From TrEMBL:
It comes from the Bacteria. Gene3D superfamilies: Hexapeptide repeat proteins. It comes from Limnovirga soli. InterPro entries: Hexapep, Transf_Hexapept/Carb_Anhydrase, Trimer_LpxA-like_sf. This is Gamma carbonic anhydrase family protein. The lineage of its organism: Bacteria, Pseudomonadati, Bacteroidota, Chitinophagia, Chitinophagales. PANTHER family: DYNACTIN SUBUNIT P25 (PTHR13061), GAMMA CARBONIC ANHYDRASE-LIKE 1, MITOCHONDRIAL-RELATED (PTHR13061:SF29). Pfam families: Hexapep (PF00132).
Amino acid sequence: MFYQFKEFIPVVHETAYVHPQAVVTGNVIIGKQVYIGPGAAIRGDWGGIIIDDGCNVQENCTIHMFPGITVHLKEAAHVGHGAIIHGAMIGKNCLIGMNAVIMDNVVLGDECIVGALSFIKAATIFEPRSLIAGNPAQRIKEVSNEMIEWKTAGTSLYMQLATDMHSHAIPCQPLRQIPANRPSQPAIYQQWEDVKKKL
């Protein structure tokens, strides 16, 4: 659902997909091939939110800010299920793990990876390619080229999902029985632990 707030109406590129059960309010700009999952709350009432091309904001994420602040997700930022971003700047090609909390005035440099359930306290700045985890979160080490390749491949799946949802997501009634010819789904992506074993 989209809501105008005062003079601000959300702007969404036609190639982006915003799930009907997400809520986008006010001063929000969503770029090309962005995926916004169901339950996401993107609330640009007190400040702006810019979500650049190729980003994804998955199910039940919250993006908000203190008054007068602009949240910026730069190109290909990847925000995992249930994460909260409050008044932060997320660099290009970053990965925010599931249920992580990114507080006000945080700046993540490009290609950072934030572990699931991490808490980044306000006004923390991380240099590019930082692997970040913990509560409070700290830089653990530098993100490797292999990790970035894995992350980038995962984000490309969400960019394709934005396109696929426009073409293939159809409201329907559930079946009452499993059909005999129900297809299987291919494993098109590997978990990082499986990738590491091959390195």
